[in-house]
Specification:
With 669 residues, this protein is α/β, with parallel strands linked by helices. It has helices at residues 2-21, 52-71, 74-80, 95-103, 118-121, 148-156, 161-185, 196-211, 224-263, 271-274, 284-293, 305-313, 324-332, 368-380, 382-393, 407-457, 468-482, 492-501, 509-519, 537-549, 561-594, 621-641; strands at 30-33, 42-43, 49-50, 87-90, 109-110, 125-126, 131-140, 278-281, 298-301, 319-323, 341-353, 356-357, 490-491, 534-535. The radius of gyration is 56 Å and the shape is elongated.
């Protein structure tokens, strides 16, 4: 029974101890800034606190309770309790009033975004650091170049006065040079007009092409003095062109450097002064730090964070140098400024955040070791460190550092977009031209094949070069071949059948014949696809001549003036050629008679009108002249013999019959 009683008594003592510890008020005093310090400590309208350090402290305190219970040291348990201690508020976020709470014993622990520094560590103790930070630069989010006109302006720069001066100087001197050159060259240079106005312009053109080193060579001086003068002009031109090119290049580079200094990526804090940027800071130490790295920097200090970031928003300043944690919160989470700024450049002057603990009477605080163990357990233990880190950085947002592009990179990106559009346009144009060339080539090849077939069908290969007149006669023969019923008319079916028998290839031969007949005016607009048509000999000849000598053009309008004029001219030409054939026949007939063709059957008779002359037969002018002289001598002799006859008498000379005219194988139009 004694053992059981002792166990029961022990359980009562444990339960009494737990009950006494449950809900025990903490004796710790925690100091913080009542106005808040975003995102570390933020006070709501109802007086409650939130923020990164408030959330962290609550977790650390819970760990401290576990540690003291494990250590089971009564003084620690008595001092810590298990309820969150009340906060001792300071009306200002400045550091010294918070540290005074520790010095005067009004607080045991203070936190409100306090850095761990060597000077403070000599006077106070710190818990382990929980967040690494430092100074970070913040710039306004600006789209430097967006539109294509802006890209071209940024690429070419603004007009430079010196470049304009170079152009005006070059043009003015060129006008004077042109006057002198015209005087020297007008009489011995066929490339420069002797007339004053055109001649001076020719000389001025030569001056400009020479000065700009283009040198087409179409106009050059001929005289010695003119060439010497041109050598001097070359030197002047090189100077003016070089001055122009240098001014334009300097203007473009200067513009890009200005834009780069204003908006370009900041690689280091030391660039701030050299680039002439205005820097805003929230406190004095930040101002001193910036000036330490960049002595020329224009640094302005602002009384509050809201005023500081509004100045950046309105471009009153160019850069904000702020604590990294605060900068991330302003950039990523602050509703007023979210999305308006970006953090840029490297972080510098790295520091750590930690909770400061008092040294009562110069000794280490009794709970300092508990604070260290609880903080390590939260931030370093595998089970909790990731969760604690995520909770802290959830207040800060994205940790990414935006590396602002250089102006050259931005212009290159814009030009890349323009290049893509130009390339697409060029490919489209080339594809269209290729398709057009392919289609045109197919049409040309098809027409060449048709023409080759017609040439073979008309037996024109043996004649070599042939003209329209020869083609007409061959087409007339082809008409006779197709006209089996000798009706002197060919309908479309007869034409199509005849052409196909000759090997004529076309996708829709009937439609082509109808459309070509429409172009020639044989059928009207409404009858293009109507029933078969009938063509006369002349119409068939015109159709075949068109297919052989011209490219078929079914889309041509027969009412167009140039088509009607062309057909009229061709018909007149055909009539002239027909009449010339008749004249040739008559001349050949006379020549045949003079050569004794009436009595000598061995003399080859002349060919029919329009037919090609035989190789052994031609009009030989010397032979005709000799025959004419023989006739004159014969007449003289006859005059002597019959001189006694009356003037009205004449010998009985039988006159040769007039050559019979042969009807041409086609009607006169």
């Amino acid at each position: 029974g004694g053992a059981a009683g002792r166990v029961f008594l022990g359980l009562l003592l444990v339960l009494w101890g737990l009950g006494d510890a449950d809900g025990k008020k903490s004796q710790l005093k925690v100091g913080l800034c009542s106005d808040g310090y975003t995102p570390f400590v933020m006070r709501s309208e109802n007086g409650t606190y939130s923020g990164l350090e408030i959330q962290l402290w609550e977790k650390i305190f819970q760990n401290m309770v576990k540690v003291v219970q494990e250590r089971n040291i009564s003084t620690e348990i008595e001092m810590l309790g298990d309820e969150l201690p009340e906060y001792v508020e300071v009306d200002t976020p400045n550091v010294q009033p918070q540290l005074d709470l520790l010095r005067t014993g009004k607080a045991d622990i203070v936190f409100c975004a306090l850095y761990i520094t060597i000077s403070r560590a000599r006077e106070f103790d710190y818990g382990p650091y929980y967040l690494q930070s430092g100074y970070q630069m913040v710039v306004k989010k600006v789209a430097i170049v967006q539109s294509e006109p802006q890209i071209f302006l940024a690429a070419f720069g603004e007009p430079q006065p010196m470049a304009i001066f170079a152009v005006l100087l070059l043009t003015s001197i060129a006008v004077i040079f042109a006057q002198v050159t015209w005087v020297l060259e007008k009489n011995n240079n066929n490339r420069i007009s002797p007339t004053y106005g055109p001649g001076v312009f020719d000389a001025w053109w030569m001056a400009m092409t020479t000065a700009t080193t283009v040198g087409y060579g179409d106009r050059v001086p001929r005289s010695f003095v003119g060439r010497c003068l041109t050598v001097a002009w070359m030197i002047v031109g090189i100077y003016c062109v070089g001055l122009y090119a240098g001014s334009v290049t300097a203007g473009v580079i200067s513009k890009q450097l200005q834009m780069q200094a204003r908006y370009g990526a900041i690689q280091d804090v030391s660039e701030l002064g050299d680039r002439g940027l205005v820097v805003g800071v929230p406190w004095l130490n930040a101002q001193k730090t910036v000036l330490k790295y960049s002595r020329k920097a224009d640094v302005r200090m602002y009384s509050s964070y809201d005023t500081l970031y509004r100045a950046l928003e309105t471009s009153e300043i160019d850069v904000v140098v702020d604590d990294r944690a605060t900068a991330l919160y302003k950039v990523n989470e602050e509703p007023e400024f979210k999305g308006k700024f970006v953090v840029t450049g490297p972080m510098f002057e790295p520091v750590d955040y930690g909770m400061v603990m008092a040294r009562p009477n110069g000794f280490v605080h009794p709970l300092h070791k508990v604070l260290k163990l609880a903080t390590y357990d939260l931030l370093k233990r595998d089970e909790t460190k990731q969760s604690a880190s995520d909770d802290m950085y959830s207040w800060l947002g994205s940790q990414a550092i935006v590396q602002t592009k250089t102006v050259t990179e931005i212009i290159s990106d814009g030009v890349y977009g323009i290049n893509v559009k130009l390339a697409i346009s060029l490919v489209s144009v080339c594809a269209f031209l290729s398709f057009f060339a392919y289609s045109y080539g197919r049409r040309k090849n098809a027409h060449a094949k048709m023409r080759k077939t017609l040439v073979a069908a008309l037996n024109l290969k043996e004649q070599g070069d042939f003209d329209r007149h020869v083609v007409r006669h061959a087409c007339s023969d082809l008409f006779d071949r197709f006209d089996d019923d000798k009706s002197e008319y060919l309908d479309s079916s007869e034409i199509v059948e005849g052409l196909r028998n000759l090997g004529f290839v076309h996708a829709d031969l009937t439609t082509m014949i109808m459309e070509e007949a429409h172009v020639m005016g044989v059928v009207g607009d409404k009858n293009v696809k109507a029933a078969p048509i009938k063509l006369t000999r002349e119409q068939f000849i015109r159709l075949m001549s068109r297919l052989l000598l011209e490219a078929p053009d079914a889309d041509s309008n027969k009412a167009e003036t140039h088509v009607a004029q062309r057909d009229h001219v061709l018909m007149v030409d055909d009539e002239v050629r027909r009449q010339m054939d008749d004249i040739d026949f008559k001349v050949n007939r006379i020549s045949w008679i003079l050569m004794g063709g009436l009595d000598n059957p061995k003399v080859e008779p002349p060919p029919d009108p329009g037919a090609a002359s035989a190789a052994s037969y031609a009009i030989k002018v010397p032979s005709v002249q000799r025959a004419g002289r023989n006739i004159q001598n014969l007449l003289r002799v006859s005059d002597g013999i019959f001189g006694g006859l009356g003037s009205g008498d004449s010998p009985d000379v039988t006159k040769p019959a007039a050559p019979a005219t042969t009807q041409p194988p086609y009607p006169t139009p």
